[in-house]
Amino acid sequence: MPFGEFDREINSLTRSRRGNFKMAQETQATSGPTAKPPRDPQPTVDRIDELARRILSGDILLPKFQRSFVWERGQILDLLDSIARNFPIGSVLLWQSRQDLRSERRIAELEIDLPRPDYPVNYLLDGQQRLSTICGALYWKGRDPKSRWNLAFDLRTRTFVHLDSLDDPPPHQIRVNKLSEPAQYFAHVSAIDSSNIPDKASLKLSATQLFDRFKDYKIAAVTLGDMSIQDVAPIFERINSSGTALTIVDLMRAATWSQEFDLIDSIEAILGALASKGFSDIDKRAILRNFSAAVGGEFSADSIDNLRKHSPEKLKEAAEAVMEAYKLCVDLLSTDLSIPNDGILPYMNQAVVLAESFRLLPRPTGDQRTELQRWFWKTAVTGYFGGWNTGQMSTDRQAVADFAAGRSNTIAIPIQKAGADTWLSRSFRMNNARSAVLALVLAQRTPRDLLTGQKIDLAAALSWVNSKEFHHFFPQDYLKTKGRGRDANTLANIIYLTSASNKEISNRAPSDYLREAEARIGAGFPDVLASNYVSQEAYKSALADDFDRFAALRAKTIADHVDVLAGWK
Which residues, other chains included, contact 351 with Cβ-Cβ below 8 Å and sequence gap of 6+? Predict the structure, then answer.
């Protein structure tokens, strides 16, 4: 499917340093009886010096996925040492295409020849740092003695070193760039005989072995062909060896780059403007959808690919409009909905649609702003974005346009009202979107700790970096003694509770710790219960240690409140 991995990643917020929420997946298919299958990847084994020459001749191009060469000097020496020792350095991935992607015109201080017009070229997708290092080491002709490419091989120690002068090094050191000029290289080797240094035979043997190694060293190259830009991204992300995934944002940066416009710079400027409110980690690929809509397109993958057709001026206008739209979107999320950061946003694509709403309607009326809030809760509690396909994207964008133009009082979405079963049938997990929704719903009533009555620190709890504030009303260990341990994590059994109170409750029965809590807090205890969506009927069930009835009653209380938030009641 187009952008398969793009949408799996954009819609599955899988972040190791904080909570993970399962997002939507674009399901537009490209297979079928009329679909043309891409050509099978073509593996070859190529000499590294030949790959370097292909880069300098313009046969292999380096798309502007990265701003510049980023390897440190030590990494350069390590790579050259791996080649000299015949260690594997990994394969490279090429994409043979007629697509017009902006590419580098210089590499490692070397000029790159322009490719022939309308002639297929090979874009280097994976291996840029390694091949850049090889080009710089073998072909550098610069005049800066401090250059990272001013390299030599010490024949005595058999190590690569950086030089700090343009003068000829001593005979036991040979410049690495002479490896690309056999005559110069072996002239240096011959000069060893006329020098006064010891171990001449050993040094000459070391030099010959180094030359042979670089002349014969080969790496695997896989060439993709006959593929669209949409299909290349997921393939790369599956087999990428660099540890840094190439995304559709990188591809579209290369497709739209000019001296006047840089897509990644524009997106990062937007994220920087959202940092003060905790929304600087909105997925760049989500914002890319808004760029597409801002130039008159859709949210879908195919429409995003059309960004390449627009002028830098049009793209700059879109960037400005998207920035202002996201500022307004984040203001609604943080101020009206009390969402403190993007880490607990249940579905990233909710921000996409909200931002588009504000782009078209920057000054909503009070009623329109209320409708945006209701739309958020409807899509959140029903999991609407858990399967956002291309058809829905188009329908939703049109619904937003109708709403912004006053043709409709609502953002029409085909969803059914959520009931109490939503909170009974699902379990609480930190990487689950419905769990994030529960946390946000519970936060609406300013919850208070069951044992102390103190207000829960929602900023800390909703940072979603740990689960210290989320615990079980019926303790899990208690339910295990009743053979109900698996039921403990049902959403209806989750409350905000400080770690100290949770430790004090431990594995005690609700009938035990609740009576103690009521005696401790006194007349204000019903308010504490209500702040946690525990009705008096549910409280009575808990005092009877009746888990099933408690969970059912609390789920109904939560559902009733959600009905109000979503405008269903």
Answer: 282, 286, 326, 329, 333, 342, 345
